[in-house]
Design brief:
By secondary structure, this protein is of the alpha/beta class. It folds into two domains: 41 residues; 202 residues, Aminopeptidase (3-Layer(aba) Sandwich), CATH 3.40.630.40. It has nine helices and eleven strands. The chain has a six-stranded mixed β-sheet with strand order 5-2-6-9-7-8, with helices on both faces. It has a three-stranded antiparallel β-sheet with strand order 1-11-10. Helix 4 crosses helix 9.
């Protein structure tokens, strides 16, 4: 059959056959067009596949983006630092009775405390570790510059007009409205320190006392306390402070308090045995 004859036969087909053929061709064309468009979209960045991924993970500018980089900010661990502050020193004797000077008692307890904490894997820094004078502001500045975790100041007390008054107390500054750590502040730390000291020393419990006017408590940005171990002005307490075994007990009690406070704050030991804490 010639091409001319074939064309004539095709042209003589019924209208219904032509309509069926036209619909078939149109359907095939549409399907091919959709397939090509979908394939291009899948290959191009910013296509529908990327939008779908944003439902499952944070993409650039997505709903899960908190810091503008496409990723949530992650808390980072940092090494725990405890600043130990032996009160007074050098020409500043603190309170005293005879040859018993507060500055020496404070330093002895502080050095023992630092030794215990260091052996536990807790990094410690002293505001002084010898009999030297250090002003108040540099003590708190040191702790702030180190971004210390806790600040423990060690003191002994005196009440010259009432030698019968004795016992142990822990001083703190009222917690700020926006504390550095959500699980710990000066008051909570004072409660822990006071509890451990009374349990270990058996001294009179004078409780925790709010002292917002004291420089090292007011200026420090981390939880901070002043532990007043006992009263040099009281004969009974004075005899205890002069006893090396009593001072050792005080150091151990303070160390226990530090560890308990760190536990409450969520601090843990890393694989190297070093205490670390998550940034807040």
């Amino acid at each position: 059959m010639s091409l001319k004859s074939f064309i004539k036969k095709v042209l003589r087909l019924p209208l219904r056959t032509w309509l069926i053929f036209f619909v078939f061709v149109l359907t095939v064309a549409v399907l091919i067009g959709i397939g090509v468009k979908g394939n291009r979209a899948a290959k191009e960045p910013g296509g529908s596949s990327q939008l779908t991924d944003n439902n499952n993970k944070a993409g650039t500018g997505g709903a899960g983006n908190l810091n503008g980089t496409g990723q949530n900010e992650e808390k980072k661990p940092k090494e725990v630092i405890v600043v130990i502050d032996p009160g007074h020193g050098g020409e500043d004797w603190g309170t005293y009775n005879g040859n018993l000077f507060e500055k020496d008692i404070n330093l002895d307890i502080s050095l023992q405390l630092g030794k215990i904490l260091d052996e536990l894997g807790i990094k410690i820094v002293y505001t002084r570790d010898t009999d030297v004078f250090v002003d108040l502001v540099p003590r708190s500045d040191l702790a702030n510059e180190l971004d210390a975790t806790l600040f423990i100041s060690v003191h002994s007390n005196s009440m010259e007009d009432n030698s019968e008054y004795k016992g142990t107390e822990t001083l703190y500054c009222p917690p700020p409205e926006d504390p550095k750590y959500s699980k710990m502040n000066g008051k909570k730390l004072a409660e822990i320190v006071q509890r451990e000291l009374i349990k270990a020393l058996g001294t009179v419990d004078n409780g925790i006392i709010e002292r917002p006017n004291l420089s090292v408590l007011r200026r420090t940005k981390m939880p901070a306390v002043i532990a007043e171990i006992a009263y040099i002005s009281n004969p009974s307490d004075r005899a205890k402070l002069a006893d090396a075994s009593f001072r050792k007990k005080a150091a151990k009690a303070l160390a226990n308090a530090v560890v308990k406070a760190l536990d409450e704050m969520g601090a843990v030991k890393d694989e190297n045995g070093v205490y670390i804490i998550m940034e807040e």
